Structures are given as C-alpha cells and as structure tokens.
Amino acid sequence: MPRPIILIASSVLATVLSLALHVFLHSPISPRPLSLPSSRFSVNNLLKQVEKLGEGNLLGPEDTCVGKDGKLYTATRDGWIKRLHSNGSWENWKMIGGSSLLGVTPSLNGDIIVCDADKGLLKVGDGGVTILASEVEGTKIFFADDAIEASDGIIYLSDASSKFGLDEWFLDFLEAGSNGRLLKYDPSNGKTSIVVTNISFANGVALSPDEDYLIFCETFRFRCMKYWLQGEKKGTTEVFIDNLAGGPDNINLAPDGSFWIALIGLRSWWLDLLHQLPMAKLVVAAFPTAVDLSKPMRKGAMVVNVGADGKVRRELGDSDGRVMAFVTSALEHEGHLYLGSLQTDFIGKLSIKEGKSSITYND
Ligand SMILES: [Ca+2]
C-alpha cells in the first residue's frame, strides 16, 4: 500500500478512536429509543389574546397558585415568591434565593408550598421559609418540580429526575430513561416516602375533587398518569391521557373537575430522528455544543383542558410563540386562565367565561 494512503488511513483511525474514547468517557447518558406520539392537535392562536400581568417584573414564572388569602402567587428565576394584590400591584413577598424555584401550591394553613429543584420541598409563610424535605429514603430529592397538598395534610410531590438536575433536563430527555419519582411527605412524622418510581420525568401533580386519585404528568412520555389513592384500585397506576402533542408540564384541577395541562414543545424533525438512534444520542450527549443545537427550536405554546374521563375538551395555543412561549402551567380561577412560562417575564391572563371569549370546544 502506498505510504500516503497508509498515513491518511492511520489519521482517520486515530480520529475515530479518539472520538470513541471521548464519547465513552464523557457521555453522561444511557440512551434508549423513545416512542413519540403520533397525534397532532390543531394549532390555534387563542393564547395571543392574553393580558400580560407584571410584565418585566416576573422572570420566568413557571407556576402560579391562588393562596388561602385569594392572592395569586408565583415563584420567579431571581429567587422571589411574588404575589398579586387586588389593586393590581405585585409584591416581592419572600426571598428564597437561587434560580431553581418551580411549582407553587397553597397550604391549608395559609402558607405557600414551593418546590425548589435544588433544595427540595419548602413551605413559605409570614414566619419565613422552612425546608420540609430534601431527602427520601436515604436519597436526595434531586429535582423537586411540583406539589399538591391533600386535605389530610399529606403533600404529594414530583422528583422530576433522580439523575439529572434542572440545568440538565435536556440530557434526561435524550436519555429517555425513567429517572423520575412521585413522592409523598407526611407532616405528622416529617417523613418522605417514594410512591411511584420509573417515571420518565415526573412533573405536574394534581388531585381529583374527591381526592380518590391524583394525576401526575410524565413529560418525556407525552402522557399523564392516574394514581389511585382510594377504592379498589388503591395503590395502582394507569394511563389518564397519552399521545399528547407536547410534553405535559404542570397540571391544575379546574373548578368543574376537569384539568388544565400545559404542553411544552419537545418535537422537531431532528429530535424525532435522534430518538430512534440511541448510539447517536450517546454521541450528541458527549458534546455540550451538540446538546444545545439539538434542543427543540419550537417557540409555540399550547395548553389543553382534559375532562375527568381523560378526553381533550379544549385546546389553546400560540402557534409561533410571539406572545406566549414555552407555557409551563395553566391555572383556572374565577373565569380566567393564568399562564406561567419559563420564557416570559409576565404571567398571561385570559378570560374563559363562556360567551365572553372566542374559545371554542373541540367536541
Ligand atoms: Ca413543572
């Protein structure tokens, strides 16, 4: 064989081997193929009609809740719990710090329960901030995401991933594993226990009106699951709704017993292809630049209203995300929807009173 060809072949072989070694040493994921949903909801632009609450003052308000005092609360990227007074003014209520505050939900005693992806489950009141739980059964609560308190004081919460933290959520998506957990905190003894494991990114949590079941969102499987708390099926899990058009983030019970679910856009032709090729995912995950380039580019937003029967009743969207992008929560309160997002500096407010908006049912 001529010497130049030998030199070129040697260089190519050395490059391939060094790349393989880099992937072997640095790829943080154990990738699996991911089955993606086939369904598509029609895209409308009803979310473009929102009123922008607190614009410029609310940095990435991922979730909202209404406290016992009737005020709207949210947690922002700058570490504040902020609340909206009836005169329309926003108050910087409590400083927690960090940039990892996510789900907020009211407590029966008037406090606000907060999920801090880094610190765990917190309770915030006029008296200050208390860490309720940061560990579960000898392991760290790695990525507290969302919580709900039952009438008996038990708090159910999601630990989105026990492997990847908030800044690495996309690696968890690439891996397509089952690193998430549903947990419960018992205030009578201060103990936290594991309720459900093997969840592919455990996200929003909501209780049924009778508290006989709860729904938790499994973002990276594009579905929400029902976990029975009472009755013959107590302790079992079944699919509530699947084949969603986006990854379900937070979920909230509506006054009529249905649920509002925010869907984040996790689809692109490139990602759809990548998910069929675990080895390619292994390579991409080894290079931070490739990870950033692979993230979904879709800027649109969508929320769906799902009946207790698991059927979609309404859908609202912003097809290009120019007004509402990356919506992570939808809360119905007194005839309005309040929309949280990690990519806005406001909370969207939309009237959904029948006869007062153009929102249509999809039946
Ligand atoms: Ca969430």
UniProtKB/TrEMBL annotation:
- Which Gene3D superfamilies has this protein been placed in? TolB, C-terminal domain (2.120.10.30)
Subcellular location as annotated: Vacuole
Keyword Flavoprotein tagged: no
Report the principal subcellular site: other
InterPro entries xrefs:
6-blade_b-propeller_TolB-like, Strictosidine_synth_cons-reg
Q: Which UniProt keywords apply?
A: Glycoprotein, Vacuole
Molecular function terms in GO for this entry? hydrolase activity
Domain named Strictosidine synthase conserved region: which ranges?
Answer: 148-231
GO cellular component assignments = endomembrane system; vacuole
Q: Which Pfam families match?
A: SSL_N (PF20067), Str_synth (PF03088)
**What protein family does this chain belong to?**
Belongs to the strictosidine synthase family.
- Name it: Strictosidine synthase conserved region domain-containing protein
What organism, scientifically named, is this protein from? Vanilla planifolia (Vanilla)
Source lineage:
Eukaryota, Viridiplantae, Streptophyta, Embryophyta, Tracheophyta
